[in-house]
Structure to design on (478 residues):
DNA sequence: CAATGATAAAATGTGTACACTTTTGCCGCA
DNA sequence: TGCGGCAAAAGTGTACACATTTTATCATTG
């Protein structure tokens, strides 16, 4: 008898490796812009700071370089790549296409009950974040989370490793990451939340073309919001 | 006066590193399908085979894993990922979008004289490859090269590292790589060559939207060619 | 005979030493 | 002062040894 409880298929990865953990930490740090663009990463110094040996650190750096998050020069080590403005704009164009494809695939393949639930939760979280009762300073963080969750569900539903990878590298430009989306005008955010609902409906109704169209439009709208916000920032700097 | 000839800006990388060279070799081998999908790569064995030490080999493997060309499991090493049929189809969808964007950017930004020349050379090479005088067995290799050159020029002209990276991972599925394109029906290849000319004209005439539309259509046509060819192959296998 | 558990072999992860390259800083020199 | 050029220092690349984990083998047991 003694039916041993089989560990769920999704969690046999209790044990990770130091390189893996390091790669995660550094990836997050890079996306958060913790390292200035163009700066060199000194291996021995970084290793001391992170309290690890050079070997797993190098492993992590090689991986991140493969992902395009770092640049490597033969006897000169790893550097944080600098992104031009046009690169940022291109990233949004590419991301619009990739997110659109993800939405289309999600609509074609349909949502499992679990994913549908998560998406509805994300939308509800967004509602709460945008409600008048919510304190302004909490709003940004809350909405950023809801926004990221919404997109993450679609990425999963698309069931394509390749599309996920493409989206990942589209967001390797810090400024385009989902976390930064919140820094914009409140009205813009409301419009984008409405777009989320439309996209949700298109996916639920299994309308791939419509889902793709809406999602593309949505991401390009985010691009415009960002451009406008950058303009304001620059205008502010001039004072 | 001994004017020391300054090495051109593009070639101060005479010295490379073993990891780098290994990564190149392995990348090529993987794209050529030299390793069966799903197989594990034994580090010590591979190191002996390639006559290198484990350290640079591991460095190369980490990089390739970052690029998505290999999969890594914590205490189990590196494996060649298996691609489902739907993954291959998805890759073409994504590639159509990315190549389309590249064509659009190229049309927006225009071609330098050098690039324009290279593109015309590639088209002329394609003409020669498809001429009736060309021996059938040489045709494939010749056209594959011309085809790759044509697309490479557009990728360069787009001037976007991100788009290049996206295209790279779209072609990490061996079957979608430019080299394999030639295995199809000759009439199909002729049609695609004609499409190349149209795309060239759209770019020269600085018509971004048209260039993008044509390129998308072109890549999706390649997808259909491939699907048809796969069907024939399978039908042949059944005999 | 199948299932189980101990044990050995093999494979991967990490620490460290050292070779080679790049960078830095210093000194002589015009 | 400014400019090579040389030597020391710093930094990266590679080799190898060892620790830890996984995998294979095999005897034991019900």
């Amino acid at each position: 008898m003694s039916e041993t409880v089989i560990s769920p298929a999704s969690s046999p990865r209790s044990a990770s490796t130091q390189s893996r953990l390091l790669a995660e930490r550094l990836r997050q740090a890079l996306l958060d812009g913790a390292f200035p663009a163009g700066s060199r990463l000194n291996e021995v110094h970084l290793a001391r700071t992170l309290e690890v040996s050079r070997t797993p650190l190098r492993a992590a750096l090689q991986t991140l370089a493969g992902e395009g998050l770092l640049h490597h020069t033969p006897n000169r080590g790893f550097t944080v790549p600098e992104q031009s403005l046009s690169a940022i704009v291109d990233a949004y164009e590419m991301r619009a296409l990739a997110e659109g494809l993800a939405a289309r695939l999600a609509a074609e393949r349909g949502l499992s009950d679990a994913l549908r639930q998560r998406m509805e939760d994300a939308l509800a979280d967004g509602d709460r974040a945008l409600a008048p009762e919510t304190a302004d300073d909490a709003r940004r963080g809350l909405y950023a989370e809801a926004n990221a969750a919404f997109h993450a569900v679609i990425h999963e539903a698309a069931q394509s490793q390749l599309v996920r990878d493409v989206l990942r590298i589209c967001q390797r430009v810090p400024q385009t990451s989902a976390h930064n989306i919140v820094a914009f005008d409140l009205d813009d955010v409301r419009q984008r939340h409405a777009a989320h609902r439309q996209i949700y409906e298109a996916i639920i109704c299994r309308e791939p073309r419509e889902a793709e169209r809406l999602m593309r439009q949505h991401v390009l709208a985010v691009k415009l919001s960002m451009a406008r916000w950058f303009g304001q920032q620059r205008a502010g700097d001039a004072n």
The two ends of chain B are 75 Å apart (CA to CA).
